[in-house]
């Protein structure tokens, strides 16, 4: 009985100690105390547990901020955590901004973090500008020659416009638009090749960083190359298209001519058929004329003589044409 009582007592002590250390992280409180951070055991630590806020994720960044000389309230940090923010990243960003003499408040940093941007990376980019490489951008000068260029855009984060400001994709798109406009307004491609800094100057004059989360410091042309002769290619394509149109029209006219020729051939065949039919009726008509006395024998002979004379003339004419053809 005594052994059972001792086991139950030991089990109860273990449960009590577990609950006590869970609700009251003594080690964390000691660390905060010796770091000069005043944290109330029941009001702050136990209250955080009851509000389902991990004390270490609040007290740890609080100690870092205090050591850096920043005064950030526990309530503000806890509220930011409950809103879904990253408290540690915000505190680290505040420390970095303070060391770089950048005016950044906890509220501003918290709003940037809740907006989905990496506030610590933004502060780093504000201190140490980053380089954005644009893809290969092709444009056509006025002489029809294609020019390809790539740029390195040096930008610095603009803390005031991080919330609601456009990102890197907008910077790249605007720089690409500026490059296309500058190359397209050049008289010849040689003008761009001789003065590549012309692109960077004109692009910078356009204020492409307006309403973005960055400030453009410089635009440097990394590479400029000559592409295809687009103007000549377009002219060649146009000439090919015109040729195909002309060929189609000629084919249409040839088809129409063939159709007319076939139609005329059919008409000639029809006329020859009618002539043959009429010639077949001549002997019967002559026989009828003999019977009725409308045609005499002498009339018949005169008609035969005329026909023979006509045939002879046709034969002589055909013989002369054959001789001329042989001589030629």
Question: What attributes characterize this protein structure?
Answer:
328 residues; alpha+beta; 4-stranded antiparallel β-sheet; 4 strands; elongated
Architecture overview:
With about 325 residues, this protein is α+β, with helices and mostly antiparallel strands. It is built from 13 helices and 4 strands. Strands 1, 2, 3 and 4 form a 4-stranded antiparallel beta sheet that branches. Strand 2 (about 135-140) and strand 3 form a beta hairpin. Helix 4 (about 55-65) runs parallel beside helix 6 (about 85-100) and helix 6 crosses helix 7 (about 105-115). The relative contact order is 0.06.
Largest sheet: 4 strands, antiparallel
Q: Give the beta-strand count.
A: 4
Low-confidence stretches: none
What is the beta-strand fraction?
A: 5-15%
| Principal-axes shape call | elongated
Query: What's the tally of helices?
Result: 13
Q: State the helical fraction.
A: 55-70%
Radius of gyration: 52 Å
Please trace the helix and strand order, writing H or E for each element.
HHHHHHHHEEEHHHEHH
Q: Give the structural class.
A: alpha+beta
Please report the distance between the alpha carbons of the first and last residues.
Answer: 148 Å
Mean pLDDT across residues: 79
Question: What is this structure's SSE topology?
Answer:
Blueprint: H1 2-23, H2 26-34, H3 41-50, H4 55-67, H5 74-82, H6 87-99, H7 106-114, H8 119-127, E1 130-133, E2 137-140, E3 145-157, H9 168-185, H10 189-194, H11 197-205, E4 214-229, H12 230-292, H13 297-327
Antiparallel strand pairs: 1-3, 2-3, 3-4
Helix pairs in contact: 4-6, 6-7, 6-8, 9-11
């Amino acid at each position: 009985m005594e052994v059972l009582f001792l086991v139950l007592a030991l089990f109860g002590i273990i449960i009590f100690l577990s609950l006590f250390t869970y609700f009251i992280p003594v080690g964390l409180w000691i660390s905060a105390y010796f770091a000069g951070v005043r944290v109330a055991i029941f009001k702050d630590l136990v209250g955080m547990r009851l509000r389902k806020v991990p004390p270490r994720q609040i007290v740890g960044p609080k100690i870092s901020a205090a050591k850096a000389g920043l005064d950030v309230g526990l309530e503000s940090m806890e509220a930011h955590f409950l809103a879904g923010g990253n408290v540690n990243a915000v505190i680290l960003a505040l420390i970095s901004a303070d060391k770089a003499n950048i005016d950044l408040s906890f509220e501003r940093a918290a709003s940037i973090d809740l907006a989905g941007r990496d506030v610590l990376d933004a502060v780093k980019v504000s201190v140490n500008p980053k380089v954005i490489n644009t893809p290969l951008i092709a444009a056509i000068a006025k002489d029809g020659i294609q020019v390809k260029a790539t740029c390195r855009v040096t930008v610095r984060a603009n803390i005031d416009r991080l919330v609601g400001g456009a990102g890197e994709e907008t910077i790249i798109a605007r720089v690409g638009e500026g490059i296309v406009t500058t190359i397209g307004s050049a008289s010849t491609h040689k003008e761009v090749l001789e003065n590549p800094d012309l692109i960077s100057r004109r692009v910078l004059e356009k204020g492409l960083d307006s309403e973005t989360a960055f400030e453009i410091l410089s635009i440097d042309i990394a590479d400029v190359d000559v592409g295809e002769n687009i103007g000549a290619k377009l002219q060649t394509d146009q000439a090919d298209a015109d040729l195909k149109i002309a060929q189609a029209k000629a084919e249409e006219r040839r088809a129409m001519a063939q159709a007319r020729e076939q139609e005329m051939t059919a008409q000639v065949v029809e006329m020859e058929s009618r002539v043959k039919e009429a010639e077949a009726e001549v002997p019967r008509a002559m026989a009828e004329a003999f019977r009725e006395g409308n045609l005499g024998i002498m009339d018949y002979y005169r008609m035969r003589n005329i026909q023979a004379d006509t045939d002879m003339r046709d034969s002589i004419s055909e013989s002369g044409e054959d001789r001329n053809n042989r001589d030629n």
